[in-house]
């Protein structure tokens, strides 16, 4: 962690390098590229659905949202509902295979990999994260408790 810039440059470099390697998959296999794209869609849209779903729930129950720099006003509820439904639609269709008939070599394995990663993440959280994780909300000015620092491993 670079404390001057407050950016973990080593992590940024590593993920950029790995992302670049994944981009090379298309050169060797279109099928492999389709799985990477499907897996990326599943991962991104599932996390978007979680955050959009939480905001949508608060809007439906008419609970207060934290202050923001800008707001959609009355259009916030329909825009969030559309985004949630569209994300669900894309997630469902990104799980389909790209060709028929479906065999072991033509199946879309992205949903299985996605579920496996979710299970591994859940197990890691249960075994380690529950006792060592510091929620980001604890760092918000005005809510930060005395003595709360960056989380440790």
Automatic annotation (TrEMBL):
Parts forming coiled coils: none
Molecular functions per Gene Ontology: transmembrane transporter activity
Topology class, membrane: Multi-pass membrane protein
Domain of life: Eukaryota
Pfam families in the record: AA_permease_2 (PF13520)
InterPro entries named in the record: AA/rel_permease1
This protein's name: Amino acid permease/ SLC12A domain-containing protein
Source organism phylogeny: Eukaryota, Fungi, Dikarya, Ascomycota, Pezizomycotina
């Amino acid at each position: 962690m670079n404390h001057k810039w407050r950016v973990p440059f080593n992590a940024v470099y590593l993920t950029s390098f790995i992302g670049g390697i994944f981009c090379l998959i298309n050169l060797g296999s279109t099928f492999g590229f389709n799985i990477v794209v499907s897996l990326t869609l599943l991962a991104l849209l599932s996390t978007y659905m979680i955050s959009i779903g939480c905001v949508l729930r608060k809007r439906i129950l008419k609970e207060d949202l934290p202050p923001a720099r800008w707001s959609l006003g009355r259009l916030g509820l329909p825009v969030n509902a559309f985004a949630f439904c569209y994300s669900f639609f894309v997630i469902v269709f990104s799980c389909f295979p790209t060709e028929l008939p479906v065999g072991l070599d033509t199946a879309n394995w992205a949903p299985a990999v996605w579920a496996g990663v979710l299970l591994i993440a859940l197990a890691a959280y249960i075994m380690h994260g529950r006792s060592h994780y510091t929620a980001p909300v604890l760092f918000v000015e005005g809510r930060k408790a005395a003595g709360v620092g960056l989380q440790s491993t």
